[in-house]
Amino acid sequence: MTFRRLSARAKFLLESAALVLLSLSVVFILAETAFRVKDALYPLELSPIVEPQKEYGWQARTNFRFVHTRRDAENIPHDVEIITDENGFRMFGGPATDGCRVLFIGDSYTFAEDATQSETYYAVAAAKLGLNAFAYGAQGFSTLQEYLILDTWLERINPDLVVLQFCHNDFINNSLELTRLSARGQCHVDQPYLSPDGGICYRNPGHGAFSSAASRIPSRLLHSLAYRIDNRKGIPSRGNSIEHIVESEGLNFPPFVNAIDTTDRLLAMFRERCGDTPLIVFNVDSREPYASAFNRICAKHSIEQITGIPEAIQTAAHKGVTVFAEDQLHWTGAGHKICGELLAEKLQLKCPG
Description:
Elements: H1 2-41, E1 50-53, E2 57-60, E3 65-71, E4 77-83, E5 91-95, E6 101-106, H2 108-111, H3 121-129, E7 132-137, H4 143-157, E8 161-166, H5 169-173, H6 176-180, E9 191-194, E10 200-203, H7 209-214, H8 220-230, H9 242-249, H10 254-274, E11 279-283, H11 290-300, E12 304-306, H12 309-318, H13 333-347
Parallel strand pairs: 6-7, 6-8, 8-11, 11-12
Antiparallel strand pairs: 1-2, 3-4, 5-7, 9-10
Helix pairs in contact: 3-13, 4-10, 10-11, 12-13
């Protein structure tokens, strides 16, 4: 009798366990299906002006035509028209189709969300010099992402000159470690980073130990749960963003030193990829310790640099010209005009027309 009672109890426990497992499996399958349906119906939306792209991580939104109201640093509204072609270029040839062919590459300053088409710095320079200009920029781009644009389009466009726009946050964006600790410009998708051996690896700055462990399991539900655990403390706030440590410690902060080394290698790659095509760079700000590090890299690799642009824009701001957008960083059409005219002054020796 005892054996029979034990057998009956064991059978009951097994059936209960099987029922629990079956219930959990059904719940998991339903939740997994819900996540997959959601992803299919509502694809990842990064921002109104960028879209996912496998090789670059993201790209400027393609076939984009949008007229919207922006505000400048004085909170004055103005209408801005943004147009991109099927590849995300804001300018692809012109105004002089037989002029010097110049390829401009950069980040959000080159995408120029606060300037209408004719106000962008490259449109201003192109109009003054009669250039055949091509311009590609994307919000949050790193130097490696800009290099990939160069690599894709150099032979197709066959420019006479390449102009690279640089910003201090490129040092942050070029480092996976610093990007994870930054409150500015985080984009939680797989994106390219330069590995120590010179190869390109793809990492998501939002992924920590749990996401890495779950990455081999083909489950959207588990990936989502792991991501939420990794980011349970949220993205760093502006007040404790890594930029404050970089700017206070400078070269005494090892992660920033590593970011300088990575940026050094990326700019060397840029110069090498351009080959016989001249490469000119310019920095949109003079913020330290980034600007000095950038100047040293350019000098080391004999990369020609156009200087004085951020200083000229700051001088105009001190005179009361509204050169900055609402975020106090990017430029209005007035800021772009100053940049474009200074570029034209320097570029006319390279592109005499």
